[in-house]
Amino acid sequence: MKLLLENILYCLVFTITVRIFAGKDARGCLYFYPKEYQEIAYERGVADREKVARSRKIFLIVFTSIMALLLVVLLKKNGVKGFKETYLQALLFLEVMNLYDGIVIDRIWVGNDPFWKIKGMENTPYVQTRKEAIRKRSFLALFWIFAAALIAAIVIHI
Question: What pTM was computed for the model?
Answer without folding.
Answer: 0.89
